[in-house]
Design brief:
single chain; 334 residues; alpha/beta; FAD/NAD(P)-binding domain; seven-stranded mixed sheet; five-stranded parallel sheet; 8 helices; Thioredoxin reductase; oxidoreductase; Ferredoxin-NADP_redctase_2; FAD/NAD-binding_dom; FAD/NAD-bd_sf
Length: 334
């Protein structure tokens, strides 16, 4: 390849789609998983379109963490860089929300909210998930700033401070112990969970974790700053941050429209997929939080790369088989 030839030049010279909206792959979702898949596919000279509704889950966060080489990067800045990389290799990225998906004889047809339709030979769902937050006033308003859920994603930023843990999940003891690693001042508000078992009580007591019984009425705040956890009886416990465990629900509407079923687990609902992202539906892959409720940004990006490579390999094999069939002479079997 000439030093003056770019990946985009090669994509432009490659055989194009059979009509305006015919693509090898449509990726629904332009987050870390979807854009990583698009880069992988475009680098293999695939005609790939990313459709992004512009609703990144981590938009409220100040930074994305545990991402080697980009530690603390603002999430929207990271996505903008990812879009530039995908476009540089010839991928297409367009804003929009896909409302319906149906299978056709040769792939899939997707309809967007604006009425436009696109077709693809393969489909990658990288639509992420929705955090269903507990119905406690103040939680949603402070979500992503003073209210967090992942000790690994944002725990370091509240290290050494007064941390409250709102009991909304059977996983609350594990979450509390992880946060206790980061601060000596941790309070567990049982709220909506039963008393810990004997072993759990012993661990909390030995680590100096305060346990508060009774339901939480609200999170007291002064503007955009958290002040205290207020109990149903009106008493308040001052805190600097609160951890909650949302219910994680994959954005799986399109998957269900195509005949798939979301898998239930104690943390929420997701699409079941194999390590390369293939789902139970032929021609449909999934990457990122839609199939892995606990994946952080780096893991989601890696899953996008794996899914993109698997889709390209599938298309390569399909093309090779078609070439063999086309090369056989009628009546000879060769």
């Amino acid at each position: 390849m000439s030093s003056l030839t770019t990946p985009a030049d090669l994509r432009a010279a490659a055989p194009g789609p059979s009509h305006q909206h015919r693509h090898d792959v449509v990726v629904v979702g332009g987050g870390a998983a979807g854009l990583s898949a698009a880069v992988t596919l475009a680098r293999s000279l695939r005609d790939v379109l990313v459709i992004d509704a512009g609703r990144p889950r981590n938009a409220p966060a100040e930074g994305a963490h545990n991402l080697l080489g980009r530690e603390g990067v603002p999430p929207l800045e990271l996505l903008e860089a990812g879009r530039r990389e995908a476009l540089s290799y010839g991928a297409q990225v367009r804003p929009g929300r896909v409302t319906t998906a149906r299978r056709t004889a040769d792939g899939f047809t997707l309809t967007l909210a604006d009425g436009d339709t696109v077709t693809a030979r393969r489909l990658l769902l990288a639509t992420g998930l929705v955090d269903e937050l507990p119905d406690v006033p103040g939680v949603r308003e402070l979500w992503g700033s003073h209210v967090l859920h992942c000790p690994y994603c944002h725990g370091y930023e509240v290290r050494g401070r007064r941390i409250g843990v709102l009991g909304t999940s059977p996983n609350v003891l594990h979450q509390t112990l992880l946060l206790r690693q980061l601060s000596p001042d941790v309070t567990l508000f049982l709220h909506d969970v039963p008393e810990p078992d004997d072993e759990g009580r012993e661990q909390l007591a030995a680590l100096g974790v305060r346990v508060v019984r009774g339901r939480v009425r609200e999170l007291s705040r002064d503007g955009d700053r958290l002040r205290a956890v207020v109990l149903a009886d009106g008493s308040a416990v001052p805190v600097d941050a609160v951890a909650v465990q949302p219910t994680f629900v994959a954005r799986g509407d399109l998957y269900e429209q195509l005949g798939g079923t979301l898998t239930e687990n104690p943390m929420g609902r997701h699409i079941t997929r194999d390590p390369a992202g293939a789902t139970e539906l032929p021609g449909v892959w999934a990457a990122g939080n839609v199939g892995d409720l606990t994946a952080m940004v780096g893991a989601s990006a890696a899953q996008g790369v794996m899914a993109g490579a698997a889709i390209n390999a599938d298309l390569v094999l399909t093309g090779a088989r078609a070439a063999v069939l086309a090369g056989r002479r009628p009546g000879t079997g060769r």
